[in-house]
Structures are given as C-alpha cells and as structure tokens.
C-alpha cells in the first residue's frame, strides 16, 4: 500500500516514503480517519540523522507483516521533530512522564482526539531487556483499545490533565544577581568531570551553552575555576573521537564519558554553537587549539552543510548507506583500522598515524575499528598535515552519510551568528559573506509578507509550518551579530521586526514566553498544553535566546520596552542558577551580559580609514559579556538609523570609540589600547 509521504518536503519523512506502513503526515485528515475507523493513532517522531530511528525503521516499519497489522488496526502518523518541534515537545512530555526518560524515535499511542494514553521510545523486533517487541506492543494496545476502552480513556484523560497542569512556568523576579551566578559556577564545579572535562557521566553531550556562560563569568569576575572548566572541556572534546580529526566538525554526543566514541551524526546547531564557543575561547586566551578548531569547523560548515541556495543543511546522518537488504552501518565513514591506515599511507606513515590517532588492533569502536583521536599535538606538524590530507582524500570514496538538507530557521540563525563573528575575529571575509548570504536566504524565503517566520525550507521552497520562538530569537540574534560585524542597519530593522512578533505573539503575561505564537499554536496541541520551556536542550531554549536578543537590541536602540522584557524573562534563571545550571546555560550567559551592562560600543569614523578598522577590531576582540558593537561612518546618513551611532562624531579629526554601560559612558577613545582598557573593566 503506497503511503502518503511521497510528496513530503522533509528528508526524514521521505526516508519512510517506501515503507509498507500507510503513513500519514500530522494533520486534521489523519485524525479524521482515526475517528472514522474508530482506531487509535500511532505517532512516530524522529529525525533524519537519528541512528535508532533508522534501526527501528529497518526492523519494524520495513517489515511487511508488522506493517500489515499496523495498517489494519491503527492510523500511523510520522513526524519530523525538527520540522514540528511543537508536536515533539508536547508528546515527549508524555513519554518522560510515563517512562522517566525520553529520546528518539518517540513512539506514542493517541486517541483520535490526539490525547496520549501510552508512550515510549525505541521498541525492538523481538522482546529483550525488559521491552516488549514492537509487534507485541501493537497487539497489546489494540486489545486494550477494543476490549478495555474505558481504561484507555481514563489513562488518556489522566495524562492529558497532567500535561495541562504543567503548562505554565512562573518567571519569578528579576534577573539573577552576582551571588546567584557564583552559586551556579559552584554547582557546576561540583558536577565537573576533572578527568575528561564536561559534566556528569555517559552519554556526554557538548555543553555549549554552559561553556559560554562560564567564559562570560570568567571575563566579568576573573574566576579561574570557570575558565579552567572551559579549557579542559574544549581540549578533551576537540582531541577525542567526538571531533572529526580529518574533516572538522563535531558529532552529536559521546556514548562514553571520555569523548572517545560518538554517535556519529553531525548537527548544524552543535557545530554553530561550538564554533562560537571556540572562537570566544581563542578571544579570551589566544588558544592555538581553539583557533585550529574554529578554522576546521568553519571549513566543515561551508564545505559539507552549505546548500546551493546559501543556507545550511540540518545534519549529516550517523549511518552510512546500507548494502541492499542490510541495516545501516553507524560510523562506517569515520572509523579506521591499522591495516586501512597502512593501505593509504604505507607502513611507516601508517604506523606513525596509528600511534598518533589512537588506532589499535583491538579498536575503540566496533569490529576492531577505531575512532580517530588526537590526544597530543604531532611532533611533526608538516607530516601531520600531509597525512591528514591523504586520509581525508582516501575516505571520500566511502559511502557518505546522508544529508538532511532542509534549512531550519533557528539553526541557520545560530550559524549566521557564529560565522559572522568568527569571520570578523579571524579575518576571514568569506565566512562573513556566507553569513550574509544565509541571512539573505532567510529574509527571501522564510519571512512572509506579514513579517512572520516559516520554520523550514528545502531546495529553495519554503515549507508551511510556522516558526516557533527559537526561530524568531535565534534569527534575531544572527541579524544583530551582522549589525556588529558589517554595520549594515538593515539587519537591525529586521531584528526589530522579529522581536516585535516575539513580544506580541509569544509573550506570557506573567513573564517569559511560550514556544508557539498565540495565533500559530496547533489546536490539537492547545487542548493538551501550549509548549513552554525555559531550559536548554541541544540548543538554547527559545525563552533564553529571546531574552538575549531582546537585551542586545535594547543596547543598540535604548529601548526600555525590550530591555524590560529581557529582564522579566531572566527571572526564571534566578532559581535555575543554583538548582540546575547545566540546563540553563544560555539564560545564565544572558544574565552575565545583563550584569556587565552589557557594554554598548559605537565606533565612529570613515569606513576607509584604517584607524576605524583597528578600533572596530579591538571592540570585537573584547570578551566583555554580551558586548554590542557597531561601527559607522558619520558622513553616511545610513549610520543614523542605528541609535547607538547617533550624535557621535570623530574626535580631533580621528576615529573614536564610545563605550557605555547602564546609562554611564566613558570618554571617547581614539587609542586602541585605551579602548581595550575601557572594555576590560566596569564603567567609570
């Protein structure tokens, strides 16, 4: 039976277009069909780069007998969580409530009205490890539906009530003070892994937002504990198997505590966030390792994730394409054996590379293969660059992981901010050009005539799903970074347009934000709860990202409305600072910017005067938390569009920089050293 996913835009849904399961996309038609047939809904949620999603698809959704039973007794709906984060968020809460944990693939059973009554994650083809087989689960759910409907209905009502009861988050008082941020660092110190870096045990995820908070805290306070945790974590991640030592870029997470064996999918958001963290580490410390990772990761983004239209694809798969009839092979593109190294490099270089990269006969991964680790710098850098190039070229003919080439607005906003800032810091104008090109794409395809964002596009065609809070906030953050780097005031106007939607459509009257707009919340989800979560996941929460963008916009414009909204949103992090800082990193990073002012830096001078460029570079090199920088030519009327540049001119015929914090301004600086000193300390 042909399913309905053949016309989908999502690469994840298209992966299932040839399944014998009669899949439906999420929508009214699917639930109407469930009501007509009086059968429950099977909701399956995943994403294109998810290894266990592929495994379950191969084991169960490609099985003719399983599909026949599923088609006869259920309406099956397939959802790409990256395309519909609102659907994922609501039903993942039911998974976590019922099982104590979450993850993907997500498997939920719903009434025709959309209420969940049973949920889990991966289910195997045969029962094992206390899990029923997927076939057994389907039969049990069908039996309960047909013979114990009252129990099912009661369960659905109970879960629905629990979801609705947890819908509102109290934002609390004002932003966390210095003592609260100190307490967050103390809590993180206690959870830090001194042997391998990072926090907690396996599986271990890159703590990108926490690292940004710790860097900002160190700059503001001089706390060396905070910097030491960042340096150790960044070094261990970059030297381990989590990092692609040949092609650059980070995998999604490590299955072990030592960053040796990753889940091999590479996500745009991880690499954008980590590119920015390593650029900031270099900015603060001059770290050579940080500089190397920045250059290699930027190269990876531009080489492997940039789309023909100028945006950035969502991910590379964990798995290499399978041989026909076999399961996908995780990590096959990236791992090596000693024999494979010798085949490419010869015996002498092969042995040298094996010792350098931790490739052993026993292997660190599966089937005697090893991930590549660079646990020490090579004793011959020239030899390493030659060997690295040979190995990179030699793996190109291997079956490459699939690419999910849909463009997600939020993640592209993160990429814009990272590439623009790193390009300015490292003197790489092509990176800045790529950021501007990506921003142009978002404006052209994702921003509709009402000024509303669409979540995704693919192949130059916009999707239909409304943007969620993180889309508006992260894209606004990217646009504000372009203001800092390029000085073009159009990006400030576009950021204002997005943030006005945030304040009108996403704001919670009690403080903070909802994750969906009040006119774009799926009615079926609204019957359960309107998604709202201030804690970070793999990316900054929309709540904290909105607070950061609002605070930055206020620094450029002096808008009390935007600054007040940012402060109100930061209230929730006063409680989270000491209790759960690992899940509030971006909110705490924004709170650091609040405490630091943030610094507002206006560089004024002719664009073609090298002294202007030097002052601008010094301002961008400042690690002052959340500093908002803009450079403009006083003879260019466009500069007056940015309020921070108005009524400011050159001093004694020389370009000048004006530094203000919290309504207090320093004397204008024409000397780069004086500007650096002003940015290194509090306002006079």
Automatic annotation (TrEMBL):
InterPro entries reported for this sequence = 6-hairpin_glycosidase_sf (IPR008928), Ssp411 (IPR024705), Ssp411-like_TRX (IPR004879), Thioredoxin-like_sf (IPR036249)
All copies of domain Spermatogenesis-associated protein 20-like TRX, residue ranges? 3-163
Q: Which SUPFAM superfamilies match?
A: Six-hairpin glycosidases (SSF48208), Thioredoxin-like (SSF52833)
Q: Name one GO biological process term.
A: carbohydrate metabolic process
- Domain of life of the source: Bacteria
Q: Which residues form the signal peptide?
A: none
Gene3D superfamilies cross-referenced by the UniProt entry: Glutaredoxin
The name this protein goes by in its record: Thioredoxin domain-containing protein
Q: What is the lineage of its organism?
A: Bacteria, Bacillati, Actinomycetota, Actinomycetes, Jiangellales
